Amino acid sequence: MVSPQQHHDHVYDLKLLSVGPGHVTGSDVVHDLTGLDLAMKLHYLKAVYLFSSHAAEGLTIMNMKEPMFCWCNDYFMTCGRIKRSEPSGRPYIKCNDCGIRVVEGVCDKTLDEWIEMEDGSRWNLLVYHRVIGPELSFSPLVYLQVTWFKCGGISLGISWAHLLGDAFSVSDFVNNWGRCMATLKANGSPTVAPRSQTTVPKPQPLSAKQVNHVGDLWVIANNCKMETFSFNLTTQHLSNLEDEHNPVSAFNLICALIWRSIAKFREGFEPQVVTVCRKDPNHDNNILGNTQVIRSIKADFSVVESDLNKLASLIAGDQNQGRDERNMIEASVEKDNGLTDYIIYGSNLTFVNLVNAGLYEMELKGKKPRFAYYSIQGVGDEGAVLVLPGPPPQGSTVIMAADEAIW
Length: 407
Known about the structure:
Layout: H1 4-10, E1 11-19, E2 30-31, H2 35-39, E3 44-51, H3 53-56, H4 61-74, E4 81-84, E5 91-94, E6 100-107, H5 111-116, E7 142-148, E8 154-161, H6 167-183, E9 191-192, E10 209-210, E11 226-233, H7 235-244, H8 250-266, E12 273-278, E13 287-288, E14 293-298, H9 308-316, E15 323-324, H10 326-334, E16 342-343, E17 349-353, E18 371-377, E19 384-389, E20 396-403
Parallel strand pairs: 6-7, 9-13, 12-17, 17-19
Antiparallel strand pairs: 1-6, 2-5, 3-8, 3-18, 4-5, 7-8, 10-16, 11-20, 12-14, 14-15, 19-20
């Protein structure tokens, strides 16, 4: 096992700069955050894209930086900084063109060596990450790290404040950067997800948990040590699973297996409620925001003793179980004008379906990523599971953030 310090030595010579829109956004432009955005403010998304030396050949940080000015014209809100309204104190984004932070580093490993390393914490070295605060007006919302490998390959790492949008927004954001590098022309400004106007429904959402007020340092305090790890499921694994439990989908079966396994580990304290996040079927790639469907699902039976098909069907909603709680979360945040702090991921055991998030649509010089990796920073104590597509034509990758004592 390689120690964290030894891992840290593998990526070095970090250089930081900022890149903003090529055109001035304008004075007094703001991006109002919805209640759902603010419910996500303690969560951060991390994305890593690995490209072979063929895709990176001839690239320099300067010719990667040039298209960013055009790219940031479209996503000018990602270049802003958090401010608070007076006198309410509600956070919003001031679109002041302060820019995203770009970091360049060097790795002493080849891509093959990096992929074969077993410690899941190594991915953090490819994503420069800082939480928002305590100086809100000086905290970038997006970090982009470019890491050059010894073999000539390259890593693109994104740290993204979840209040800007969900993983589907991150994927669209990165894919559009690839198009900008190919054409030096962006696709036009993305639409911001509409703000919901609603009264507080009863009962309160099961998928959101209120936490102690964090002030201006936007990070949660866990009650246990959290670790992130992953494992791969081949196409054959998934095929066997689906054949055995036809017609339930692989995602629902994977979630059912993990849910039941965790229930067994907890010995009498099995989780009866889980949260499932999926892409909104009406999602528009030009929409920036937190638009994913968030459902809470409650089992009124023993999870440990449950038939796998029954549990998977419950997750799928085949029994009309589980409500979309987005409006309920929005309303709960709005009743305190956005000043109460919540978490979504890890408030219950949380499953996130990113299989159709377009993670392999990003291209460098016409080449797709060799591997794409997403994770979430700021997961609550109950843990979260992300199911991602594996590199074509392989199966899926399952990434977990959980109390290491449970796993």
